[in-house]
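User: Can you predict the 3D structure of MobA/VirD2-like nuclease domain-containing protein? Sequence below.
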Amino acid sequence: MIVKILWKSKTFRAVRYNTNKVEKNKGELVKVSGFGALQGLSEIRPGDYINYLSSLASRNRRVVYPQFHAMISSKGRSLDKGELVTLAEGWLEGMGYGNQPYLLIFHKDTQNNHIHMVSSRIDLEGKKISDSFEKIRAYKVLNKLIGNDEKHAAEKALTRALQYSFSNKAQFMMLLERQGYALKVLEDTLDLSKYGEKVGSINLTRIEQKIARFSPDQKRKEQLKQIFAKYRPITDSRIQAIREDLPGGEKGKVIFYNSELSEKLSSSFGLQFVFHFKGDKPPYGYTILDHSTKEVFKGGDIMSITKFMETLRQTEEVKTSIPISEGIYENQFSPKEEMLLENPSESIFPADEVEMHDCISIGEFSLDIDISDDIDDEQILGRNRRRQKKARTNTR
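Assistant: Sure. Here are the predicted structure tokens for MobA/VirD2-like nuclease domain-containing protein:
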């Protein structure tokens, strides 16, 4: 289950986006609330909703982006239309939009049922609905509605991680990061947080005691070496850099790397690969989380990173969304607290489901574009012609 606050906009173009889905039979307008006398009309056009919301926005000109557009998605068909409507109503109430005019549009054109919510950030009195810690509150409200207890979940995550065999503290932390936790090492504890809030901790002594008892499974290590040797020659091992999506279809920094070989070994043998890299440079190493035997291996102990990637030339392919290999640590939330979306263990939104791509992302990204006046090409070429004693063909 995820919630996503979508693009900011100076106008209410989200209304058009969603009504176009309805017209194409890819969506259904399931609820209209708070639009006053407008709801009494026998036939309402999208422009009527836009005009009503725009009239509210005009009461507070200081708010540059008055549109509020959000979405809640279930995994697959786990929630039907009615359940999503109930969930959306409760979520809007918890976020301060319960008395606002809003539209609920159920989308059925992807593999995951999801519902869109469109409203105004300006209320009837011209006041802005609070957006303080909005992204953190979004998940807090959702988790409360669906009965998720983050502190209890953190305790379970620690218990599961301690069931693994690992040789150092970094490997243990990796197990928790794969579950979406941000970690902070203090003097004698390791703190876990999610959505900017501390949800658990563990004494470092327990981790050190576990490391002291570590004994590598040599039999499993030899088995993995044989598996790698078998599949590497027949599976494409070219590393692909997966980058974050930015507004306007741009691509940002590298989020992680994978390959067909790592995906094959993940799906077939319960292995999860974590490639280590800096910036845009290719991976310099990797770690293997063996969920079948609950052990963490240094990738180089099984096969060197150079050999693991050496078939054909190394290339980089940018994709919009690639599943991270699944295991018991299927990660449904991003380890970075400032991000609201899940770190997808499976693709929640297919590549063709681009949400309001022409608006401005609410994410923590900015594009600084410096456009300076260009010197006219003809002026430059004209000077070159004069130097060559050729006739000038234009004047300014």
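The first strand starts at residue 2 and ends at 5. Residues 81-94 form the longest helix (14 residues).
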